Amino acid sequence: MTEDRKQSSLMDDGLDDAELDWHLLKSWETPRGIWKVIATVDHKIIARRYIVTAFVFLILGGMLAVAMRIQLARPEARILDPDRYNQIFTMHGSTMMFLFAVPVMQAMALYLVPLMVGTRNIAFPRLNAFSYWIILAGGLLLWISFALDAAPDIGWFAYVPLSGPEYGSGKRADIWAQMITFTELSALAVAVEIVVTVFKQRAPGMSLDRIPLLVWSMLVMAFIVIMAMPAIVFASSTLILDRLVETQFYNPAAGGDALLWQHLFWFFGHPEVYIIFLPAAGMVSTIVATFSRRAIFGYLPLVMAFIATGILAFGLWVHHMFVVGLPRLGESFFTASSMAIAVPAGIQIFCWLATLWLGRPVFATPLLFVIGFIVTFVIGGLTGVMVASVPFDTQVHDTYFVVAHFHYVLVGGAVFPLLGAIYYWFPKMTGRMMSERLGRWAFGLIFVGFNLTFFPMHILGLLGMPRRVYTYQPDLPWGGLNLFISLSALLLVSGFLVFLIDVLVAWRSGEPAGPNPWKAATLEWATSSPPPAYNFRRIPVVDARDPLWRYPEELAVTAGLRVDRRELIVSSVVEALPEARESSPRDSIWPFWAAIATSIMLIGSIFTPWAVVWGSIPIAVTLVGWFWPKGTAEDIS
Amino acid sequence: MKSTSALLLLALLVSGCTGAQSILNAEGHAAIELKELILWIICVCAVVWLLVMIALVSALVRQRDPDGGAISERKAAVAISGAVGATVLVITGLTITSFYTTRALSEASPAELTIDVTAQQWWWQFTYVDANPTRAFVTANELHIPVGKVARLRLKSSDVIHSFWVPSLAGKRDLIAGRENMLTLRAERPGIYRGQCAEFCGLQHSHMALFVIAEAQADYERWAERQRGVGAEPTEAEAVAGKAVFMAKQCAACHTIRGTKASGTTGPDLTHVGSRRTIAAGLLEITRGSLAAWIADPQTLKPGNNMPLVPLTGDELRQLAAYMESLR
């Protein structure tokens, strides 16, 4: 650092609060104007975009579900033809898994992790901006293809040979495979950001055993993403290679193997469930503690359970393949490992129950959703134990029993906590409270509607109704239950409508929230609602798991950061001892252009392999712009 | 919520006994074992769920004493350890039970007959294998087996992945191109058991049903003997004309009728189509009218299937349906 730079640098030591706020805002704020907004790298703005986008996809995916329920309400209905129906169930699964569930969980991490660990921005903020534009492009690709009646019709699992060059006609399977590539890119980028933020940007003193449980769950989720995504990257790339340039990875006639696809897909696909569930478990832990008015009981067992879940997640993909004809020994191993995951799941449930037992529960809407979560998720977990048994599974596999099972896990186990989390953190994100009255209505309708819709599906499965059928014949005894399910779905939809109305009304005119409306313990509540662009005026110092309960009056803070440029503290991995001041990247339009260039290349490659060659040139140009050296030191130890 | 699930469980028990294609309507050796296991595991899990719910409710509404926090924390730790221990016991028990069921499923007695099952979009071809190749025969979408005897199915696919599933008789097993899987069936009681493809296989996955007809040995032998024979020569005038239409139009290019020059293999073997219960993989019960409807407009009845619309006059259609019906 040269002498004159040192003189020009303005430190936060000597400034009073108002002056400090003014300088920090000047350095960190996203200016007005459309290009400035596109160029922003503020993790809160990007996370909010992600969350809103994900909820738009939830609504779209939900509308598809309603369309399917209308078609299935009576036998041999002709409202949707089989081609449209197959597109719709593929779109429903792909949208919910790739465009809603994973992004929304990661987005919650993007918003909350930097605040909860007490830093000013996510690590690699430009990558973060890039990741958002990428997933948006992937979602648009999928939904525009649907609008053009050319959407994938091969299921969200896209089994070969049905999705291969021989049977998957047109560009439908290619669109699916490239949509997956978009979501892989975005998910991997966010995962890396989360890991680095958690490991290197924690507030001084926040040693590993003081990290909030939500942050732990997001950290484990990020590691699962990093380890699971390569399998699907390989799978989707080889699928598109098979289709585009006639490689024969999945063609048995040419030495390929149809089952290879299933192994690769589920090696990713099963951990995917935990990518969605673990963040929800973190949200539950947070909400349970806050509304029990006490620290979570069993912090260490919970962290261990998260990690154990993350590891076991990679040992049970074969239970999706119990009827493909595997050797007996393999089946036994995967039965045992699938059953074993019930142990960490049980530990989590028991710790939450113990916290509720020991505390004094306050029945606010977030806690209601958590109670709904426990009721439904335990059902989903238990039916999971059922399908882990190979003989049991040979009967219910690919029936509505499984449809019921995974909706109990994904909706009961992840969407319920997510809705609770929205009620819980909405005040932080917007500065306004959602309505407690509408919240109760939303919870009641969603809980009852969900159970009435999905519980009967267990029975339909036992009565022999397979999945992914666009209709069934009148002489089969499924008509009554299907009609009942379709009507119940309306109740579920009305619950979501109440929720959306509540969100919209509260956003415009909700009660002001104040910094800590729930009297919670973690650092995100130590700043204003919504937080300023720089998150914290001064970075807090932490010596407890529940800093705001330990020090309700005033938190200890650090000093010594520059305020005339974006700077944050880099700390050590285990103890979170401050190691360096690091500059945090400024806003940049280049991630946006890089995302556009990448999207053009990926979409072009659906049609010609040459798109990869020529398309890489604009990408290279945008990356050069993105990483153009600024001539300033990045960090000062 | 609890009362609804109780109601639904009741509905399950009532309707479970009448279903033509139901896991709970178990009539085969494997399906009976599986039903026992399924009901047992469901009961165990229901008890576990109830216990967790009792814990949840009492955690939420219990009377709280103003002090004694430290003692409760210790109690909670003991309770959690106990609950985790119980979880381990339960899942170990279920794992072992499921291993034993798997073992009980394997057939001790050797197979009495072997049938090659070839699944394709969207119908089933059954080849009854015989040591003497002249006694082997081919049929479609309707499988006959003798009651109490072990039938060994060799499962293959000629296109995408399908799954053979007749829930009243046995669990399902996939049919995968480039692989051969095995499944054994043993019906304990005579009856007609519906099954259907359980792996998504494209447009008409929903209409890929089959029937397994389990009958007494003598009945089975009589059926098999008739199936081995060539297609019946029509006698009725309309059917005779129908045969001429069949041979003159594209029909013969895709279908086989043994004993005639029709020897196509793209579509189902029609040598004894009139003896089957249904047409188009369980879509319609066979009558002269439904045969005519199917031939006249297969794409409306089963959109996307591989049978083309063959332009026929009204007379030709009637004649063809009469011929098909006569192929018993």
Please give a structural write-up.
The complex is a heterodimer of chains A (637) and B (328). Chain A is mainly alpha-helical. Chain A contains 20 helices and three strands. Chain A has one domain: Cytochrome c oxidase-like, subunit I domain (Cytochrome C Oxidase, Chain A), CATH 1.20.210.10. In chain A, strands 1-2-3 form a three-stranded antiparallel beta sheet, with no helix packed on it. Chain B is α+β, with helices and mostly antiparallel strands. Chain B folds into three domains: 23-60 and 74-107; 113-228, Cupredoxins -  blue copper proteins (Immunoglobulin-like, Sandwich); 237-326, Cupredoxins -  blue copper proteins (Immunoglobulin-like), CATH 2.60.40.420. Chain B is built from nine helices and twelve strands. Chain B has helices spanning 2-16, 29-61, 69-105, 217-228, 237-248, 251-254, 288-296, 298-301, 314-326; strands at residues 113-120, 123-128, 137-140, 142-146, 151-157, 162-164, 173-175, 181-185, 191-196, 209-215, 278-279, 284-285. The longest helix of chain B has 37 residues, at 69-105. Chain B starts with a helix and ends with a helix. The chains are: A mainly alpha (637), B alpha+beta (328). Chains A and B meet through helix 5, helix 11, helix 12, helix 13 and helix 14 of A and helix 1, helix 2 and helix 3 of B.
Short synopsis of the structure:
Chain A is mostly helical and 637 residues long.
What features would you highlight for this structure?
heterodimer, A: 637 residues, mainly alpha, Cytochrome C Oxidase, Chain A, 3-stranded antiparallel beta sheet, 64% helix, disordered N terminus, B: 328 residues, alpha+beta, Immunoglobulin-like, 3 domains, 5-stranded mixed beta sheet, 3-stranded mixed beta sheet, 12 strands, elongated
